UniProtKB/TrEMBL annotation:
Source organism (scientific name): Variovorax guangxiensis
Protein name: 2-hydroxychromene-2-carboxylate isomerase
Protein family membership: Belongs to the GST superfamily. NadH family.
InterPro entries: DSBA-like_thioredoxin_dom, GST_Kappa/NadH, HCCAis_GSTk, NahD-like, Thioredoxin-like_sf
All residue ranges annotated as the DSBA-like thioredoxin domain in the record: 6-199
Record-linked CDD domains: DsbA_HCCA_Iso (cd03022)
SUPFAM superfamilies in the record: Thioredoxin-like
Record-linked Pfam families: DSBA (PF01323)
Keywords noted in UniProt: Isomerase
Reaction(s) the record says it catalyses: 2-hydroxychromene-2-carboxylate = (3E)-4-(2-hydroxyphenyl)-2-oxobut-3-enoate
Active site: 15
């Protein structure tokens, strides 16, 4: 049964929490018949506005607890995850642009598939999503046109990436993932129960 609701899905491609929530989020949205709008954003632009800190600048006890919590959720959800992957921190702007290009040319379902591939590349497969050749491989593995990598460098894609980031700042999104329904922000994959309730008719 469709609720007719729309969920704006704000995330950073290198976010482990987005990876841990992605498949559940996709299932919840599908079960509710909700429309997902895929919104990769640049957290490097969001943090200075929101008071957030990049991982390397956080207090040692926060960094240590993050590793404990990631391992805890990985086990709880039955999802594989390397808490210290080979390529992390990693520049994720190119990955964000590829996801946007896929969304523009192939639609939401393909973009969500591309998201999953990018998240798994970082947190499961230990591949470098900062490398354009890796992104090209992921596009092909998702059954999509190899042109997407080239198209991701277009002005139209860059403008959309900047617009999504500014949109996130404007509505006061401060972390990834954030799911926004009717203007209400649900931050973090541990809020998916509330997302599910918000989608009920």
């Amino acid at each position: 049964m469709s609720t007719g609701k729309t969920i704006d899905y704000y995330f950073a491609p290198q976010s482990p929490w987005t990876y841990l929530g992605h498949s559940r989020f996709e299932a919840i949205a599908a079960a509710a018949g909700a429309t997902v709008r895929v919104r990769p954003i640049d957290m490097g632009s969001v943090f200075p506005v929101s008071g957030g800190l990049p991982l390397g600048k956080r207090a040692p006890q926060r960094q240590a607890y993050r590793l404990v919590d990631l391992a805890r959720y990985s086990k709880h959800l039955g999802l594989p995850l390397n808490v210290k992957p080979k390529f992390f921190p990693v520049a994720s702007d190119d990955a964000a642009r590829v996801i946007i290009a896929v969304d523009m040319h192939d639609g939401t379902e393909a973009a969500m598939r591309m998201c999953a591939a990018v998240f798994q590349a970082v947190w499961v497969q230990e591949r470098n999503i900062g490398d354009p050749k890796v992104l090209d491989s992921l596009v092909v593995e998702c059954g999509l046109s190899p042109k997407r990598g080239e198209q991701s460098q277009s002005q139209a894609v860059q403008e959309r990436y900047e617009a999504y980031t500014q949109e996130a700042i404007d509505i006061q999104v401060f972390g990834a993932p954030s799911y926004v329904i009717d203007g209400e922000i649900f931050w973090g994959q541990d809020r998916l129960d509330f997302v599910e309730r918000a989608l009920r008719p």
